[in-house]
Amino acid sequence: MGQPMPSLRARCLAEVLGTFLLVFFGCGAVHTAVLTGAQAGLGQVAIVWGVAIMVAIYVVGGISGAHINPAITTALAVCGRVPRSLVLPYVGSQLVGAFLAAATLYALYHPHLADKEKDGKVTRGEAGSEITAMCYGEYFPNPGEGKNAERYKQENYEELTSRVSPGTALLAEFLGTLLLALVVFALTDERNTGAPPAYLAPVFIGLTVAILISVIAPLTQACFNPARDFGPRLFAFLAGWGSVALPGPNGIHVLTVYLLAPVAGALVGGGLYSVLRNQFVPPLAPPIRGTIPDDLPPRTDAP
User: Fold this and answer.
1) Number of domains making up the chain
2) Residue 146 has pLDDT above 70, yes or no
3) What gap in Å lies between CA 136 and CA 268, rounded to an integer?
4) Taking residues 17-25, what's their average pLDDT?
5) For the whole model, what pTM was predicted?
6) In three state form, how does the secondary structure of 179-231 look?
7) Does 291 reside within a domain?
8) Which of 101, 212, 293, 295 is the 20 to 30 Å CA partner of 141?
9) CATH number, domain at 224?
10) pLDDT (average), residues 9-17
11) In terms of residue numbers, what domain contains 13?
12) What is the pLDDT of residue 293?
């Protein structure tokens, strides 16, 4: 007999914890990079995000499956990998975990945030304060890249959007999440004989996230996860950034780029793998009877 399925409450608490770990470590690396210069470039931040994914999956994967991402949860449910009844409880739990992680980071780093704003001569909640709000929600173009911070401050949005238009940002987030979902579906498919052992799947999922961040973060900060963006963004809105955090300088495009595009990308990526799997991946061979102890006939000399 298999292990009993954890209760829905236990699985939701696991999603809260897993998403908290992801956002605390990942956004924590963004905080240290932006506020203290502790990270030597994008590569180190990307690795921290990758390790954060790996750790979160190892900690709560045995309880909830460690979705820690509404886009992945939605894709798994639509493709029949998990019950659709889990979507709303899981997504709500993921948002709670992300919000709590953002609040914890603010409690730790709020003096550094104030110093950064003072040094940059910006007022929180006004144009230019994206340079600290980016520790929570995401922006395109990335305010931390090159001279973007000064351009945000000057409200020179036409020049900014000529470098990374809303369409480019949407495509980047859609494609990034598509590739992430494709990898997640492939690595967690027991029929995929080319995948590494199941206990190594979190490592390769984390490495995939690190690679994607390295490529896409200069454009959009690399979200791929609506909870990771909206939970901290909501906290920043309440913590004084106001409309700079929610909706942000690009208005409605925050919804399309950081919420809808990841969900659409995950659906396409998961659906693509499901089609390939059904067409080209052979089903698992049934066990040969008589080779498993449970299949052996009872001993006749038992008392």
Assistant:
1) 1
2) no
3) 27
4) 98
5) 0.89
6) HHHHHHHHHCCCCCCCCCCHHHHHHHHHHHHHHHHHHHHHHHCCCCCHHHHHH
7) no
8) 101
9) 1.20.1080.10
10) 98
11) 8-276
12) 47
